TrEMBL record, chain A:
Role this protein plays: Required for pre-mRNA splicing.
GO biological process, one term: mRNA splicing, via spliceosome
Residues covered by region (Disordered): 221-265
Protein name: Pre-mRNA-splicing factor 38
The organism of origin for this protein: Lepidopterella palustris CBS 459.81
Keywords on record: mRNA processing, mRNA splicing, Nucleus, Spliceosome
Compartmental location: Nucleus
Family: Belongs to the PRP38 family.
UniProtKB/TrEMBL annotation, chain B:
Phylogenetic classification of the source organism: Eukaryota, Fungi, Dikarya, Ascomycota, Pezizomycotina
The organism of origin for this protein: Lepidopterella palustris CBS 459.81
Annotated GO CC locations: spliceosomal complex; U4/U6 x U5 tri-snRNP complex
Name of the protein this chain belongs to: C2H2-type domain-containing protein
InterPro entries according to UniProt: Snu23, Znf_C2H2_jaz, Znf_C2H2_sf, Znf_C2H2_type
Cleavable signal peptide: none
Keywords recorded for this protein, A-Z: Metal-binding, Nucleus, Zinc, Zinc-finger
GO molecular function, one term: zinc ion binding
Residue ranges with Basic and acidic residues bias: 21-50, 68-77
Length: 265, 217
């Protein structure tokens, strides 16, 4: 297939659709009907998304200034969501999406990095890639919708070391989020950006089936040390053998953890 | 009578074809070729019709895409809907009804249609009718990964160049602003002079002052 239609008429034809399929169904069905209708009625879709192909889509994507689903009382779709829908129409090849995701900027640096990169080093390097962060977020969202579970985990997990800020538009305002948080939401939540994400098998499940290797955290040994500290504290408190004390300490540790979490956010 | 002294009925030399030379000469080879093409086309259509019937569909003959139709491309800039705000236009008296012809609103020159709002206008620009009128095929070329990469590199270069032009120094910014203002003033002066020259006596148009000018009561 060397060309595709400029508009989405063929995509929205629910009886005679004959394009590429995602998991055996029309890609448009990955976006809910109500939101889909709002997208195709929106001015951004009609004006800016007409006649895009995988290359010219970059022009629009680098002009994005926020992610999000729908906003306002009418549930107006964001440009981000419109471009996701456009990607679902185009169904670009894997290497195009990877180009969006990991575009490095310099001419030939990408391949060298991949050769000698593994583990933690690879994580940091991949965080530096993705010159245009909203394009990266767009690609990540598309990957979550369109790819297979194992590929999703393998391609999206390196993005968990990308700590850049993202602006997210909510129904009535903006909030701050981060790329790693966005990707984590993609991997764990079942609803994002006005789209219900299809049920992704959990990581533990895929590890049990030996389709995925256990994840090496970029924190490295620090996680083990944290665990060890926990065990130590509990051991220290046990000999007193008073249930109230134990509960108090447990509450204390819980408070401490949530506190540190909010600091990080 | 031999052929060398063949004569016409009214005297004079008969033309080469005898007295039937006024008839149209048929180029047999060309018409054979045409007949063959016609037959081939009919056969193809019959085949398509048969295949459609096998699939339980109805066959529709459609005009082939003209060979010089170019691919549709994405809009390279935002559609400018505010360019005519505040401008006065003369429109024909009958133009208020229907879309045909040039009237008040968004006018599409290729299709000779006028639309009352930008949504209708953009829908028209995306429509099959407009694409055909402008010689586009309605198909977009698929981009390869390499093209995507080149595009991104280009976009990055463009962004870097733009950021270079941005000045952070306050003094320099004031300087730039002054220059821009000067240029605008010069432009205004030039326009005013032009207007003055157009009037007969060179005095310019007398300004008509109205009471409560520009104030909506």
């Amino acid at each position: 297939m060397y060309s595709h239609k400029a508009d989405a008429k063929a995509l929205l034809d629910d009886r005679g659709y004959s394009g590429a399929l995602i998991r055996g169904q029309n890609p448009a069905l990955l976006i809910e009907k109500a939101v889909r209708d709002r997208i195709t009625e929106s001015y951004y879709w009609k004006e800016q998304c007409f006649g895009l192909n995988a290359a010219t889509l970059c022009d629009r994507a680098i002009e994005l200034t926020f992610v999000g689903g729908t906003y306002g009382g009418m549930g107006k779709p964001t440009p981000f969501l419109c471009l996701v829908f456009k990607l679902l129409q185009l169904v670009p090849e894997k290497d195009v999406i990877l180009e969006y995701l990991n575009f490095g900027g310099d001419g030939d640096g990408g391949e060298e990095e991949e050769e000698n990169g593994n583990g933690v080093g690879e994580h940091q390097r991949s965080a530096q890639r993705g010159e245009f962060k909203y394009l990266r977020a767009l690609a990540a969202f598309y990957i979550r919708l369109a790819w297979e579970p194992v590929e999703i985990y393998q391609t999206l997990e390196p993005l968990l070391s990308d700590y850049r800020k993202l602006k997210r538009r909510t129904r009535d305002g903006f909030t701050l989020t981060y790329m790693d948080q966005f990707v984590d939401d993609l991997l764990t939540k079942d609803r994002m950006c006005a789209t219900s994400l299809w049920k992704l098998p959990s990581r533990a499940n895929l590890e049990d089936l030996e389709m995925l290797d256990p994840r090496i955290s970029p924190l490295g040994d620090e996680i083990d040390e944290l665990d060890a500290e926990d065990v130590d504290m509990e051991k220290r408190d046990r000999p007193q053998d008073s249930e109230d004390d134990v509960r108090e300490v447990r509450n204390g540790s819980a408070v401490k953890y949530s506190g540190s979490g909010s600091e990080k956010d | 009578m031999n052929s060398s002294d063949k004569r016409g009925a009214y005297g004079g030399n008969a033309p080469a074809g005898g007295d039937t030379a006024f008839r149209k000469q048929w180029d047999r080879a060309e018409y054979e070729e045409r007949a063959r093409e016609q037959e081939k086309k009919q056969k193809e259509e019959g085949k398509a019709r048969y295949e459609a019937a096998l699939q339980g569909k109805k066959y529709h003959r459609r005009a082939s895409t003209p060979p010089d139709a170019r691919d549709t491309e994405a809009r390279s800039s935002r559609l400018d809907v505010a360019s005519m705000v505040g401008k006065t236009m003369l429109v024909p008296a009958g133009a208020a009804v229907g879309k045909r012809g040039k009237g008040a609103g968004f006018y599409c020159g290729e299709c000779d249609l006028t639309f009352k709002d930008n949504i209708q206008y953009i829908e028209h620009l995306n429509s099959r009718q407009h694409l055909i009128a402008t010689g586009q095929s309605g198909e977009v070329k698929r981009a390869t990964a390499d093209e995507v990469r080149q595009r991104l590199l280009w976009l990055k270069r463009k962004r870097e160049e733009e950021s270079k032009e941005q000045v952070v120094d306050l003094g320099a910014r004031l300087e730039v602003a002054k220059e821009v203002e000067e240029r605008e003033r010069e432009e205004k002066r030039r326009k005013r002079n032009e207007k003055r020259r157009k009037t007969k006596d060179g005095l310019g148009h007398a300004e008509i002052k109205l009471e409560n000018d520009g104030i909506i009561c």
